[in-house]
Recover the amino acids of this structure.
C-alpha cells in the first residue's frame, strides 16, 4: 500500500507497507462518521477485516468506549494495534482496546459469551464495521454469525463496505436501512430489527 494514512482530524497513521490492503477512503470514512454521529459516543465498536485499523481509529477519536478489531493478516493486525494505542495515548483516554489476528468467520462462530466469558448484553457491540475484500462473499455468513453468536445488542447497527457494483441481500431477520454509493465504493447499513437506528435519514449524503 502506497501513501500515507491520515485521519479526518489530521493524525497520520502507520500503514502496512508492501501489502495489498485497501484502506477505506477519506470520503467514505467521513460519510460513515456523519451518519452515525453521536451514536458513537461511549459505544462498543467491532471492526471486522480491520486492516490498518483506520476506521477503529476514527471511532476512537470520536468517543468509542470499547474497540475490538479483527484482522486475519498478522502484520496488518500489528499495525492496527499500534495505531489504536497511539490514538488512545494521544487523547489520554482509558479505553478497552483489543486487536486479534484471526479469521473473521471462525472467530464469530465461537460466539460472544465464549469469547468474552459472559453473556451480558452490556458488553456486546453497538456498532460493527465490516470491510472485507471487495470480491468477498462473506457478508451473509458474517451477518448470520453475529446474531447466532450473540455478538450484538438488541439495537445494533452493522455498516458493510463493499463494491458499488454489489448489492448485499441481508438474510432475515436483518433489515437494510440504507445503501449509499461513493464512486466505486458503497456502504450498506443493516440492523437485526427495527431499532433506534431506523431514523437514519436516507436522503443525507
Amino acid at each position: 500500500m502506497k501513501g500515507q494514512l491520515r485521519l479526518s482530524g489530521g493524525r497520520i497513521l502507520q500503514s502496512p507497507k508492501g501489502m495489498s490492503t485497501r484502506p477505506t477512503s477519506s470520503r467514505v470514512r467521513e460519510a460513515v462518521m456523519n451518519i452515525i454521529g453521536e451514536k458513537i459516543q461511549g459505544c462498543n465498536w467491532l471492526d471486522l477485516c480491520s486492516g490498518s485499523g483506520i476506521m477503529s481509529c476514527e471511532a476512537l477519536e470520536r468517543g468509542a468506549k470499547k474497540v475490538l478489531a479483527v484482522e486475519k493478516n498478522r502484520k496488518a493486525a500489528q499495525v492496527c494495534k499500534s495505531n489504536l494505542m497511539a490514538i488512545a495515548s494521544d487523547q489520554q483516554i482509558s479505553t478497552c482496546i483489543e486487536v486479534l489476528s484471526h479469521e473473521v468467520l471462525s472467530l464469530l462462530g465461537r460466539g460472544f459469551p465464549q469469547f468474552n466469558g459472559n453473556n451480558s448484553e452490556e458488553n456486546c457491540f453497538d456498532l460493527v464495521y465490516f470491510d472485507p475484500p471487495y470480491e468477498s462473499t462473506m457478508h451473509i455468513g458474517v451477518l448470520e454469525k453475529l446474531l447466532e453468536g450473540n455478538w450484538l445488542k438488541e439495537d445494533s447497527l452493522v455498516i458493510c463496505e463493499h463494491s458499488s457494483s454489489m448489492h448485499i441481500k441481508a438474510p432475515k431477520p436483518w433489515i437494510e436501512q440504507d445503501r449509499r454509493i461513493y464512486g466505486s465504493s458503497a456502504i450498506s447499513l443493516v440492523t437485526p430489527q427495527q431499532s433506534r437506528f431506523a431514523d437514519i435519514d436516507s436522503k443525507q449524503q
About this structure: The chain is about 30% helix and 25% strand. The chain has a mean pLDDT of 87. Residues 74-91 form the longest helix (18 residues). The longest strand covers residues 152-163.
